[in-house]
Each structure stands twice: as C-alpha cells, then as structure tokens.
Amino acid sequence: MSAGAQLSVTDQRRMARHPVDHPVIAEHFGKGDMRMHIANISANGFMIDDADGVNRGERIVVRLPVIGRIEAYCIWCRDNRAGFQFERIIRVDDFLALIDTIQPNPRLRKMR
C-alpha cells in the first residue's frame, strides 16, 4: 500500500505558472495555522517561498479569492521553497478570475 497522497489531479509540471505576491494563512493538519507566501500559482498548484517547517507529503488548506477553501499537498521541498498540488481540479474560468484578483498587474499575467 502506498503512503503518498492520493490526488485526483495528475502532476502536470508544464502548466503555466503565474507570478504572484499573495500572503495566506494555511491550516496545517498537524501544526495549526501557518503564514505562507505564494510566489507563483498554476491551475494545479502553487509554490511558496517561505517553507520553514513544511515537509513533503504534508497537507494544508488555504483560502484563495474566487476559489475559496482548497486542500493542497506538498509535492516537493527545496531550500526555502515548497510546491503544493491542489487536491481537486480548478475550473478554468474560476482560475482566470483568481489570477485577475491576486495578480492585478496585467503585464505579469500570461497571455490567454
């Protein structure tokens, strides 16, 4: 039996990443509330750049504009960064509205 996270979304590392500057308070299932800074986000997950105390395989819940509460699993950790994969698929129209909300600078948004 595998001990890893059972995710409904396959790891699609080629998804377009959108640079953002978005602080969140994540609900960690063992450590309680943790402040995190999302540095980039895609339709499948996000990367934080302040990953002190976060380990691969851990689960968190974050509240994002438009999307609401969503669970994510830590897929990788390196230096002070960590990558998380969402536990469910985000609809394209909701994701685009999210980017418009958290990345107000149109020059930093990817072409659609």
UniProtKB/TrEMBL annotation:
Residues 12-89 form the PilZ domain. One of its GO terms (molecular function) is cyclic-di-GMP binding. It comes from the Bacteria. It holds the Pfam family PilZ. SUPFAM superfamilies: PilZ domain-like. This is PilZ domain-containing protein. It comes from Qipengyuania aquimaris.
